[in-house]
Each structure stands twice: as structure tokens, then as C-alpha cells.
Specification:
It comes from Gelidibacter salicanalis. The protein is an alpha+beta fold. The protein contains 7 helices and 8 strands.
Length: 205
């Protein structure tokens, strides 16, 4: 009998709070994103010096993934066959604006390599993979809004074809002052049904 794949845990970051499996693990009165995300990373013991050099989208995705993957109790000494499938609406637009501002004025023309490196949305997956030693497939989709169906289809395909042992999926959006991360982990030993309807329900929780 084929082993059903299920969601083992999920994480939300929104409104200055971090939720793990629906429980608030880091509420903060801080409204401004930059200060909030740094404070949350410190409180949740995200020990990764490069975190503070990342762009906002990568910080958001990285923290949500770190909360989930630490909760999964992965060994930090071994490689992990975990795929990543993420999505958003704005792509890397927030960082693109920052980079454009650095080159817009001919008098102050200064293209920054440290900003330019984040002008692709999938860079956040690389940051996650480096920290947690993930060695598998990854893909970043751009949708008009959260869309559970492609996430479900691609995760199921990777797991059934044994291309990954687990899949980290979700939505990570940063545009100006608006931000939200919703990530979940799919594997054989999960506890929540892995279906488009259930993914949508968790997203709205």
C-alpha cells in the first residue's frame, strides 16, 4: 500500500508574530519589519551571521524555514534530501527597487553587488539550503495570489518519484511594508492531510 504523504508542521510569519503549528511562538509589539525580524531571529535562536546581510524577502523565508526545520530536529552535520517549492506575487520587487535607486542618479551611481545578488526571488532558497544542508530540487513560482494547487502537485510528484524525502513548500511575500510567510513541511510521517483544500485551510488559519 502506498504511503500517504502528509504535512508534519507549518509556520506563519505575519503581523509582527511568528506562529508554529498555529501557536504564537514570538509575538512582538514591534511593527517595523526590519527591527521585528531581527528581534525574532534573536529570540528564536536563528544562529546564522549572514542572516543580517540578507534582503527582506530572504530574511522572511529563512526565518520561517529555520523555525520549521529546527522543529523537525534535523542533524546539522548531515546533508538532507529536502526539496523546496516556494511562491509569491511580488518576486524580488522590494530589492529591485533598492537596487534601482542605487543606479538611478548618474551623479551618485553606485551599483551594489551585495544588493544585486538578491534581485532574484529564488535566492532565498539558496540561503535556506546552505544553512540546513539541503540537497534536492527547488522551484520558485510567481502567482497573482496564494495558489495551493501547483504547490501540492509538485510536492506530490517529487515525493512519489523519490526525488526528495521531504518537501518544504509555501508562500513568502515581501513588498514595501507588506509581508507574509506561510511555509509547511510535507513528508511520510506527517499528521495533517496533504491536499489543496487542507493547505488553503492552514494558510487562512
Amino acid at each position: 500500500m502506498e504511503q500517504p504523504y502528509r504535512i508534519s508542521s507549518y509556520c506563519h510569519i505575519k503581523n509582527s508574530s511568528v506562529f508554529l503549528d498555529g501557536k504564537d511562538v514570538n509575538a512582538s509589539p514591534i511593527q517595523e519589519f526590519s527591527t521585528f525580524i531581527k528581534s525574532a531571529a534573536k529570540q528564536l535562536e536563528t544562529n546564522y551571521p549572514k542572516f543580517y546581510k540578507m534582503d527582506n524577502l530572504s530574511k522572511l523565508a529563512f526565518l520561517a524555514a529555520d523555525v520549521l526545520l529546527k522543529n523537525a530536529d534535523l542533524s546539522s552535520d548531515n546533508e538532507h534530501n529536502i526539496a523546496i517549492i516556494l511562491s509569491n506575487k511580488a518576486s524580488s520587487l522590494d530589492t529591485d527597487r533598492t537596487y534601482q535607486a542605487s543606479i538611478a542618479d548618474p551623479e551618485k551611481f553606485f551599483p551594489s553587488p551585495s544588493v544585486f545578488v538578491y534581485t532574484l526571488p529564488n535566492i532565498c532558497m539558496g540561503e535556506i539550503s546552505i544553512k540546513h544542508q539541503l540537497h534536492s530540487e527547488n522551484c520558485f513560482f510567481i502567482f497573482d495570489r496564494f495558489n495551493a494547487d501547483p504547490l501540492w502537485i509538485n510536492a506530490q510528484s517529487l515525493l512519489k518519484r523519490k526525488k526528495a524525502e521531504k518537501v518544504l513548500c509555501g508562500w513568502v511575500e515581501f513588498d514595501d511594508k507588506n509581508y507574509e510567510a506561510f511555509l509547511y513541511l510535507v513528508e511520510e510521517n506527517g499528521i495533517i492531510a496533504h491536499s489543496p483544500n487542507e493547505i488553503k485551510r492552514l494558510y487562512k488559519t
